[in-house]
Design the sequence.
């Protein structure tokens, strides 16, 4: 069974840091381009960041560029998102999602982890 | 990259058909046939319903169909059923090598 399981969310003060993890199983992780997509409370989906299958190529939304870092450990089938200099507007459910290389849609999704940035 | 534009809400009675529009620009929908649609029930993860404008993943009902014209994509749901009530999001790959989502449309089955 294909599964993505996020962890690491929680309450953090503005300016603080948090590291999210996403454990993958049931598919060949290294052949999947992996991304983070977030959803603020009551709002729509927002693409955050993407890492290629090897992890060498990454991209970020302008809203998180320079503050967030995406990485992956293919030996452990795990995706990460290091979030620094957090702001109130980063409060959201963060979904881990993936697409097969050569395709352009997200076909595997985790259930999400909630990040709350508040003093 | 601005979000794609979707109507905030649509509604229909069981058995009817509805269409949700998704308007982008020449930098996303207008350039690529990489439009996908996702269904999200409250508190759940998004589920892929349509990819590459009009293709359906295995297991998705053929009541769901997609199309595109210029910078606008559309999702049509025919034979509405109660379980179709959910939020729907469009998405497109962009010239910036990123993805953009629509603001979401709440479908109410009357």
Sequence:
């Amino acid at each position: 069974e294909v599964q993505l399981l996020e962890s690491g969310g929680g309450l953090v003060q503005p300016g603080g840091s948090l590291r999210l993890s996403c454990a993958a199983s049931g598919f060949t992780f290294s052949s999947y381009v992996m991304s983070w997509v977030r959803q603020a409370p009551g709002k729509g989906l927002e693409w955050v960041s993407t890492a290629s299958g090897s992890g060498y190529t990454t991209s970020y939304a302008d809203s998180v560029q320079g503050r967030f870092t995406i990485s992956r450990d293919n030996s452990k089938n795990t995706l990460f998102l290091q979030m620094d200099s957090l702001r109130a507007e980063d409060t959201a459910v963060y979904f881990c999602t993936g697409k097969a290389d050569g395709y352009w849609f997200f076909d595997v999704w985790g259930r999400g982890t909630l990040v709350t940035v508040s003093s | 990259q601005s979000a794609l534009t979707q109507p905030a809400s649509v509604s229909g009675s069981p058995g009817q058909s509805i269409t949700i529009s998704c308007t982008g620009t020449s930098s996303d929908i207008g350039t690529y046939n990489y439009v996908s649609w996702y269904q999200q029930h409250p508190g759940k993860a998004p589920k892929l319903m349509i990819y590459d404008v009009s293709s359906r993943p295995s297991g998705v009902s053929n009541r769901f169909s997609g199309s595109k014209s210029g910078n606008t994509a559309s999702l049509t749901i025919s034979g509405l059923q109660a379980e179709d009530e959910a939020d729907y999001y469009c998405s497109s790959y962009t010239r910036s090598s990123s993805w953009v989502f629509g603001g979401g449309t709440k479908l109410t089955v009357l």
